[in-house]
Amino acid sequence: MTPVHAASIRLRHALHHSRTGQMALLAAFWIAGEAVVRLTGLPLPGGIVGLVLLLGLLATHRISLCSLRKGASWFLAEMLLFFVPAVLAVLNYPQMLGLLGLKILAVILGGTVSVMTVTAMTVELAGRWRMRHAT
Amino acid sequence: MQPDPWLATAFWSSLTIAFYLLAKRLYRRWPRWWLMPLALTPALLIAVVLAIHASYRDYIHGAGWLLALLGPATVAFAVPIYEQRALIRREWPVLALGMVAGTLTAVGTSWMLATALGLDGTLRLSLLPRSISTPFAMQVSQDIGGIPDLTAVFVVLTGVLGAILGEVLLSWLPVRSALARGALFAIGAHGAGTARATQLGREEGSIAGLLMVLVGLLNVLAATLIAALLHS
Questions:
Q1: pLDDT tens-place string over residues B130-172
Q2: Which of A77, A106, A126 is facing B117, going by the closest CB pair?
Q3: Which of A111, B47, B54, B204 could form a disulfide with B109 if both were Cys (CB 3.0 to 4.6 A apart)?
Q4: Which of B77, B230, B218 is nearest to B139 (CA)?
Q5: What is the pLDDT of residues B7-51, one digit of tens each?
Q6: Do B117 and A107 make contact, defined as CB atoms within 8 angstroms?
Q7: In a shared domain, residues B137 and B41
């Protein structure tokens, strides 16, 4: 076993137990995704490119789930916190507090109820239909 | 008077995190929709901003870095998606059908409701892509001639309301499969909905994560095509 190989094994072991290390690894994929977007001019967010990169490495077994699971769970559990600053942007549109805001709210409420109902019922009914016609 | 930028960052960031942790605690104890962290935290922050006569600029300079964490959070969806690959491979036709139906409904109902209420022009266009996550939605808004900034606000409002509405709808609709429950949140309320779905269960969360990404891609592709057709 070469020293490099041994060091790589030790690093992997440490990563399996360190949530902070795993979070840093996920952030590294995001930064790599941002770099790809900047270099190629893809009309995609960097996070999505990072996600695709990581899925590729998982699928080809270059990286194992044990090196990521703890960090990923943390990010997914606390994701709502990262949306909070975006909501404050409503402060920039004081005209939304009046009648216009109520109209917009009505569009969003009506639209969202329709989208959710149609989507959930389509998937549910299509799923049941497939189940019944499965051989 | 210009406050110290480090102090401002420390103030707005710790206030945001403190309100978020408080809201999480309260919501765990009393699960009412208005105590949901995504509704209560911004409401408290807006109250503070208005009370001390600060502005959105002050706030976002201090706590805007939290938004950047959505990047690694998006990457994190690779884990549940990979874990559920067998389910996804088995059910992809159903998921694809739901995605197309949901997208057509989103665009169709937004257009019709906006027209019925007398909203038109760039405002109506800015409302169309609000069911997909912010970076995708801003891209689509740009492509179809809306105002990306305004779309970002609508996206967030959709997320907050959708995460709340989704729960109410789930108790009314005869929807039992994890597939349909995950799809409801992902296609109706993008990332905020997906975060709610993650709390329902692992399967719901991974389906929602996958669909959120795919429906965003589908919309960007469709908008690019439409924009290319309109300008040709």
A1: 888 777 787 788 888 888 878 888 888 898 889 889 989 999 9
A2: A106
A3: A111
A4: B218
A5: 999 999 999 999 999 999 998 898 777 888 888 999 999 999 999
A6: yes
A7: no
**Number of separate domains in chain B:** 2
Closest residue by Cα to residue A88 from B32, B67, B76: B67
What range defines the domain where residue B93 resides?
Answer: 74-231
Contacts of B200 in chain A (CB under 8 A): none
ipTM over 0.95: no
The answer on B61 and B124 residing in a single domain is no
Identify whether residues B39 and B151 lie together within a single domain: no
Contact B152 A44 (CB under 8 A): no
Instruction: Please tell me the total number of residues recorded for chain A in this structure.
Output: 135
Question: Which residue among B52, B68, B84 closes a domain?
Answer: B68
Residues with Cβ within 8 Å of B108's Cβ and at least 6 positions away in sequence, in order, are none
Q: For an interface test with A, which of B79, B89, B165 has the most A Cβ atoms less than 10 Å from its Cβ? A: B79
Residue A120 is predicted with a pLDDT of 95
Say whether residue B176 is in contact with chain A using an 8 A CB cutoff: yes
Residue at B120: amino acid letter: D
Q: Comparing C-alpha atoms, which of A23, A38, A62, A61 is closest to residue B71? A: A23
Claim to verify: residue B12 and residue B118 sit in the same structural domain: no
B41 in A contact zone (CB under 8 Å): yes
Q: Are residues B80 and B48 in the same domain?
A: no
Token look-up 């979070």 returns A23
Question: What pLDDT sits at residue B53?
Answer: 93
B162-219 pLDDT tens trace:
988 998 999 999 999 999 999 999 999 988 888 888 888 888 988 898 898 888 888 8
Check if B126 contacts A (Cβ < 8 Å): no
DSSP per position, A93-109: -GGGGSHHHHHHHHHHH
Whether B180 and B209 map to the same domain: the answer is yes
Same-domain status, B100 and B163: yes
For residue A38, the chain B residues in CB contact (below 8 A) are none
Residues of A in contact with B217 (CB under 8 A): 44, 48
